[in-house]
Design a protein that fits this description.
Blueprint lengths: L4 H5 L6 E5 L10 E4 L13 E5 L8 H13 L4 E5 L11 H10 L3 E4 L5 H35 L4 H12 L2 E5 L5 E4 L9 H13 L5 E3 L2 E6 L6 E6 L4 H24 L1 H14 L6 H10 L7 E7 L3 H14 L4 E5 L2 E7 L4 H8 L5 E3 L8 H10 L1 H7 L3 E2 L5 H7 L3 H18 L4 H11 L4 H8 L3 H15 L6 H19 L1
Parallel strand pairs: 2-3, 3-4, 4-5, 14-15
Antiparallel strand pairs: 1-5, 6-7, 6-10, 8-9, 9-10, 11-13, 11-14, 12-13
Helix pairs in contact: 2-3, 4-5, 4-7, 5-7, 8-9, 14-19, 15-19, 16-18, 16-19, 17-18
Length: about 500
């Protein structure tokens, strides 16, 4: 408990008396200071017991009011006047008593046999005792937290012991912000404010933390981010001393879980091997997914190029833990995973493999997981060039390749093949008809339907395209060159 003015008055060895405002003795004393200045406020920080003998203070009401107002404005909690035969005053002067009473500032008198240093020592001795008591309380609480963690009951007993000792609710999430454990009072999914703090810590990793009014998020883990601690409440000074210890205990438990999950990771790696077996039937693939707890009609392959073998093992372990029903394994520095179509692989990779080249295959039936995984592996080089994970999209594979090209080169290539069309028809009708015809599988009727034209109009326009460009539309190479030029022009415009 903080030292109060009343605590000092109750100490008989200090011989303190109350001359004004006995009703305000419940204020804490944060420091004791001596000054004979008539304007000492600039030298105060707030919460002090200011002591003076009034040597320079004129004892008229106006001067005393100005003095007390200055002291009060600076935040002092009490004023003490030293009395003595060799001092200016033997009792509290009425002007000073009146000014203190008007301002609501407790005025004490210090007996003639007590030096100011005795009061100062008493204040700082009480503060030292309070600090020592706070440390002892922290040690005792830390022992209770350690005992709860050592009991082998997981994260919840430790969180309960913390809340019981501090009154601050706590929960643990995984690196994706999903609640892993909470106190016995129940799981509370993070609200929008907490979600933003979790996002910041997830991006910043082990060296980050985030604080908002009534909320705090701390990272958990030893070498990698294994989870996050969310504190909801206002930790006081005692609780603040314990947060680092709580983080350490929870991090140890998460690391223990990580090690304990190794057999399960090996089992899942084995399941993935069975899923990718070329001889596996669709029924066997479905059985493998059921054994992994993954109910999905379609799956995706994901391949990540790690920095080294150890990095690959850590990424695989993180993905196996965080991806529901996900199957992972390592092959040297490559991490291979098969996940349900409903998962957003980009979000998982942003958390667990930031900056690593990664390919994401197209969704396929479980029996074709091997194809999606092979497709993902083929995208690694494109990912290295693009600087981000690359997702396969069967309907936009050409756009993916063209997006990686040089915009000037693409524009030049398109202009070389299509420039004559632009000159012959500035409205763009010929280019539009050609593009629609190529996209519709060279169907005259479908092109006419899409453009709202007569079939003969379409034929006439395409005959003109052939004459102007000098290309034969019945030749596969010429059709491909024109199709690629049209796609290159689209890609250049997007850039």
């Amino acid at each position: 408990m903080a030292l109060l003015i009343s605590d000092l008055v109750d100490r008989p060895e200090l011989h303190l008396s109350v001359a004004a405002c006995p009703e305000h003795l419940d204020r804490p004393v944060l420091a004791a200071h001596v000054s004979e200045l008539v304007r000492p406020g600039a030298w105060l920080q707030g919460g002090e017991l200011l002591m003076t003998i009034g040597l320079l203070l004129p004892m008229d009401v106006a001067a005393c009011r100005a003095y007390v107002d200055d002291v009060t404005a600076a935040g002092a909690h009490a004023l003490a006047l030293g009395l003595g035969h060799d001092l200016p005053y033997q009792e509290a002067p009425e002007p000073l008593v009146t000014a203190a009473r008007e301002a609501g500032l407790p005025l004490l008198t210090v007996g003639r046999q007590v030096p100011f240093i005795a009061v100062t020592k008493a204040v700082f001795a009480a503060q030292a005792a309070e600090q020592r008591a706070a440390v002892e309380r922290a040690f005792e609480t830390q022992r209770r937290l350690t005992a709860a963690a050592a009991a082998g009951g997981g994260l919840t007993p430790t969180l309960d012991a913390w809340t019981s000792a501090t009154g601050v609710r706590a929960q643990v999430t995984d690196p994706l912000g999903r609640t892993v454990a909470a106190g016995s009072d129940g799981v509370r999914e993070p609200d929008a404010a907490a979600a933003e703090l979790l996002r910041r810590v997830a991006v910043g990793g082990l060296r980050s933390s985030a604080v908002a009014p009534g909320l705090e998020v701390q990272p958990l883990g030893a070498r990698r981010l294994r989870g996050m601690l969310v504190l909801a409440g206002d930790p006081g000074p005692d609780a603040r001393l314990l947060i680092s210890g709580l983080v350490s205990l929870l991090s140890l438990e998460l690391e223990r879980r990580h090690l304990a999950d190794e057999p399960e990771r090996r089992r899942r790696a084995g399941l993935l091997g069975r899923l990718l077996d070329p001889s596996a039937t669709a029924e066997q693939a479905a059985d493998v997914l059921a054994g992994a707890g993954l109910a999905a009609d379609a799956v995706r392959g994901v391949v990540v190029a790690a920095a080294d073998d150890e990095d690959a093992r850590e990424i695989a372990a993180d993905l196996a833990l965080a991806v529901p029903g996900g199957l992972t394994r390592t092959r040297g520095t490559l991490v291979e995973a098969v996940v349900g179509e409903g998962l957003d692989p980009d979000a998982a990779l942003a958390h667990f493999a930031p900056g690593r080249p990664a390919g994401i295959g197209a969704p396929v039936p479980p029996g074709a997981a091997r194809t999606s995984l092979k497709e993902a592996g083929g995208l690694l080089e494109l990912s290295r060039t693009a600087g981000h994970p690359v997702r396969a999209r069967h309907d936009h594979s050409s756009a993916l390749l063209l997006d990686l090209g040089d915009r000037t080169a693409l524009t030049g290539y398109a202009d070389a093949l299509l420039g004559s069309l632009d000159s012959a028809d500035p409205t763009g009708a010929l280019s539009l008809t050609l593009a629609t015809w190529l996209d519709s599988g060279s169907s005259w009727d479908e092109t006419a339907r899409r453009l709202g034209l007569h079939r003969h109009t379409v034929r006439n326009r395409l005959d003109k395209v052939a004459r102007v460009t000098g290309r034969r539309l019945d030749d596969g190479d010429d059709r491909f060159d024109l199709w690629l030029a049209l796609r290159a022009r689209r890609a250049a415009r997007r850039g």
